[in-house]
Amino acid sequence: MASTKASILAPKRSKLGRAVSKVLHLRSATGIAPFDGVQNFKRQEKVNKAEKHVGKVINNWPKSFIMEDHDDEEEELRSRQSMEALVAKLFSSTSSVKAAYAQLQYAQSPYDAEGIQTADQIVVSELKKLSEMKQCYVKKQFDPSPGKTIIRAEIEELKSLIKTYEMMGKRLESQFRLKESEILYLKEKLEECQRQNRSLEKRLNQSGQLNMVDKLPHSGPSHFITVLQHTVKSIRSFVKLLIAQMRSTDWDLEAAAGSIVSDVIYSRADDKCYVFESFVCRVMFEGFHLPSFSHRRQSLPEQKNQQQNFLRRFTELKSVKVMDYLAQKPKSAFAKFCRARYLHLVHPKMEISFFGNSSQRSLLDSGEFPESTFFASFAEMARRVWLLNCLAFSFNPQATIFQVQKGCNFSEVYMECVDEEATFSYENAPEADPPVAFTVVPGFRIGKTVIQCQVYLSQVPTK
Fold first, then answer.
1. Which positions are tagged coiled coil (predicted)?
2. 3-state DSSP: the chain helix, strand, coil percent, rounded to 5?
3. What is the rounded distance in angstroms from the CA atom of residue 275 to the CA atom of residue 263?
């Protein structure tokens, strides 16, 4: 205590001594410079006596007055530490609530009643602690040992974080197990589908091609109609792509439709698409009555085994990717058919307007095939038409093709109107004699079975 008192009084005494020395300085008071050692000695003696007197006065001051500043600093330090302890407890309690909430979520799925109850109790307990901390802060009731409290709060906060991460880990683990079970289920389902496919393939191989040929005369029309529907769908898909290319290059669709079929009044503007569909069908089905669309005469063995040969071609091409087949067999009969029909259907000026050049035509002339989306859509359509031709010549008697001329009267036996609204209007007006404007999709005959051709009816009688 003596040392502390000395350290506090020392700077005050020295400062006071300097002030007294300034006051008692003879040179500043008289303006006369000392001239011998006697005067200097007397002056110094007076200064020392004054300092001793001031020191006695200071020593008689009360201790509360001397320690006032020191107590204020200690109080401020304690207050700051108490606030830090309060904030640390607040963070620790918040982390505990977060950990309890994570535990509550984990206990809900799968449902764990005990886990939910434990998490609920922890949340209620921590909320009570928060309420108590609020009251302590309002009443200025601070922790007497803030240092230990801060350490304990940090430890509790770390424990809560670890618990939160553990809950997250358990939840991710349960999700992982769920995904694993789904994968196992899908694998089992895939294996079951593969077993069924192998069984069907085995049955097909055991039945053989001859048995299929024997069954075709009886189940041929329904099978032919199914293949024809897929063919028409493929044709319409290509026609949509063709019209989209024409619109993107600013073609006059009305003039183009008029150059194909003239003097037709359409019920809707969008019906012009049937004209382009009719043109594509006319080109693709040209020569359908010939085996493989070729005028080449068949040899006697080929004529004898015609049904088996065409069924083999149908089976070979029905389940392959058309572009892969063309790449593997660029000199096959189908490749020649595909190349010839593209050059006939797509005019050079049309190709240049679509793509800016005639590179696709040049590739086809050189014996190769382009890999564009446009040609891939065309090739798929050509494959469907080729399969329909193979199927037609695998029947006995073989399927034949027909279409009706412009101006013919509509007949429900041989025709089907592509515009259902027009058919309805003609049914409500029986006195009208609806003429055919053009054939959209040709019709077919298989023995005594007739597959109707699809036609577009004109809105006024055609002269």
1. 155-210
2. 70, 5, 25
3. 12
Q: How far apart are CA 68 and CA 236, in angstroms?
A: 100
| Beta carbons within 8 Å of 253's beta carbon, 6+ residues apart | 243, 246, 247, 272
Contact 400, 289 (CB under 8 A): yes
Q: What residue has token string 């389940």? A: 319
* pLDDT tens string 158-184: 887 887 788 778 778 877 887 888 888
Contact yes or no for 463/264 (Cβ under 8 A): no
Q: Please say whether the beta carbons of 97 and 126 come within 8 A.
A: yes
Three-state secondary structure call for residue 45: helix
Establish whether the linkage from the previous residue to 370 is cis, with ω within 30° of 0: no
Do 137 and 130 contact (CB within 8 A), yes or no?
no
Strand arrangement of the beta sheet that strand 449-451 belongs to: 400-402, 443-446, 449-451
Q: Which tokens go with 6?
A: 């000395």
Strands 400-402 and 453-457 come out as unpaired
Residue found under tokens 């293949």: 227
Sign (positive/negative) of CA torsion 70, 74, 75, 80? positive
In angstroms, the Cα distances linking 398 to 143, 295, 353, 448, 452 are 103, 17, 41, 11, 17
Give residues with Cβ within 8 angstroms of 369, minimum separation 6: 323, 326, 327, 330, 335, 338, 339, 363, 375, 379
pLDDT digits (tens, 9 = 90+) for 269-287: 888 899 999 999 999 999 9
Q: Are 398 and 221 in contact (CB under 8 A)?
A: no
Average pLDDT over residues 203-207: 58
For residue 138, give the amino acid letter: V
Query: CB-side exposure of 372: number of CA atoms within 13 Å?
Result: 14
Average pLDDT over residues 348-375: 90
Measured in residues, the chain has a length of 463
